[in-house]
Amino acid sequence: MEISELPEECIAHIISLTSPRDACRSSLVSPRFRSVADSDVVWEKFLPSDYKDLISRSVAAETTVLISMAKNKKALYLHLCENPIPIDDGNISFGVDRPSGKKCFRIGARGLSIVGGDTPYYWRWTSLPQNKFSEVAELIVVCWLEIKGKIDTNILSPATTYAAYFVFRLAEKRSWFNQLPVQFRSGLIVGGIELRPKAGR
After folding, report:
1. 114 contacts: CB under 8 Å, gap ≥ 6
2. Where in the numbering of this chain does the F-box domain appear (predicted)?
């Protein structure tokens, strides 16, 4: 028996065990495969298991849009890949990695601990049209710089290696980072104790 002769629910189950990319490729096989590969049964498996909870934590306007999109799981998946949504207090956003379906998070400037961040002499809070967060921190002048961020590891995708990126934009005629190296460290805080990787590892 050829795979195309299997019942549609069997084909859907097989495709759901692959990847979003493979599902898109399999939709090119035939109209029948396209119907199955684009079905909610398949794309529900690619979405994070707690996506409904995370969507419910988004801001009101986003929630309304996403609930209406939830009727088409593939459209919702692709939307979350391209348009991370602000959740909780709006200082963190949730999205989906297109190839894997793993959860991605971004922490906005207001969600970070910035030394001197509330001192107008050192920092200015402003907004940028292209930024997903309502405010960004603009550095005016400091003699030293320390920024800390944290995230609850329980909301991350299990059995997944994450990378942390510090995203910033240099203003014109500002070259501090060109003159001094930036040190970046990551660690795990458990019960108020910060655990760091050993130096050199």
Report:
1. 123, 137, 146, 147
2. 1-46
Instruction: Report the C-alpha gap between 134 and 116 in whole angstroms.
Output: 20
Pairing of strands 136-139, 147-148: unpaired
The token pair at 88 is 């909780």
Alpha-carbon gap, residue 55 to 64, rounded angstroms: 10
Q: How far is C-alpha 168 from the chain's CA centre? A: 17
Global pTM reads 0.79
**For the segment 105-133, what is each residue's pLDDT rounded down to a tens digit?**
999 999 988 888 888 888 889 888 877 78
DSSP 3-state of 143? coil
The secondary structure element, H or E, covering residue 106 is: strand 103-107
Q: Shortest CA distance to 101 belongs to which of 48, 41, 26, 153?
A: 48
Work out the number of other CB atoms within 10 angstroms of the CB of residue 147. Answer: 15
